[in-house]
Amino acid sequence: MAGRIDAEYQQLKDRAHRWVVERLDEEGIEVSNANRELLSEFIRSAVGQHIALNRVPLSTQDLNQLVKDTLDEVLGFGPLEPLLADPRINDILVNGPDNVFIEVAGVLQKAQVRFINDDHVIRVIRRMLAPLGRRLDEASPMVDARLPDGSRVNAIIPPLALNGPSISIRKFTRNHLSAEEMIRSGSLTQACLDTLIKAVETRRNIIISGGTGTGKTTMLNLISQYIPREERILTIEDSAELVLNHPHVVSLETRPANTEGKGKVTARELVINSLRMRPDRVILGEVRSNEIIELLQAMNTGHEGSMSTIHANSTRDALVRIETLLAVSGYEASEKAIGRLIGSALDVIIQLERLPDGRRRVSEVVSLSPTEDEQYNLDYLYRSEA
């Protein structure tokens, strides 16, 4: 990854950045309105001036790196710029100024970039949030937002974050893996794909289950491609990640409360509203809370073929988690009635797993076939080889 991380260079970068900001203020240049090419030339000249005035011995390579880093500081998101630009990186995790991690091909590794100090991290966070109208300070020390490119960012600062400010970025991509690529990588087999296609085409209600980073959204994108073209789809997400190659999609997105605590729109409200919009199928990005009630009822009342994902480490865990969500959401019914609701609404659970080497794969595809004696009678349509 780009950028030098030694302490002496970081201090030089901080001084150069401050010098450039002062020169911009003196000239009355507003970065947001300035021509990018002219602004880049101005910054390059100002950095060279700072180096010459302070007689800093720098090689041409180091000077070019300093100019690039300063450009990233003024025009972008500082040390995160090369990571955001790298298409191989899926997640960026900042645990304070010295510990930046990235996920590449499912494997976490430490990145060769760092921030100068805690203030530097917070400055970058606020630059991300400024165009979004969101704030981050001691009164509101936690924020969840979506960048203009669709990437999802979560930030939390002291006093809630004990080890310094933290940033978690899930990068948005429109280039989701195709079925052929997933088969080549071993994520699924042709037999598994055929099973999934049949489940979608026959309008089975599907839940995709898996732990963190197992590829739930990728799988949801994949199987959604097989929905018949004449059907109308309503998607509901906290942050838009689904990219459906389909001619008739209406995408809805939840909204957090504003700084006054007003204006929040929940997934549950959007599910309720979506049922008034004549959908053939409802696709809920992830089940997390009380929206599970409306989703299961929709699956039971004419919206067959609906889909969602859930965070769970096994098929049985997924069913238990759905039961728990119903209970904590105030759904008042007997254990037997809850089991009957889930068993009649859900048809198929696709369980995903991530292997130690970072590869993701479908571990099993299970059909729910309730019987008198067993509400969660599971028939295995597909199981991966150990």
Automatic annotation (TrEMBL):
Record-given protein name: Type II secretion system protein
Domain of life: Bacteria
MF terms (GO), sorted A to Z: ATP hydrolysis activity
InterPro entries noted in UniProt: AAA+_ATPase (IPR003593), P-loop_NTPase (IPR027417), T2SS/T4SS_dom (IPR001482), T4SS_GSP_E_ATPase (IPR050921)
Family per record: Belongs to the GSP E family.
Domain AAA+ ATPase positions: 202-356
Pfam families in the cross-refs: T2SSE
Gene3D superfamilies recorded: 3.30.450.380, P-loop containing nucleotide triphosphate hydrolases
Annotated CDD domains: VirB11-like_ATPase
Organism: Alcanivorax nanhaiticus
Signal peptide bounds: none
SUPFAM superfamilies named among the record's database cross-references: P-loop containing nucleoside triphosphate hydrolases
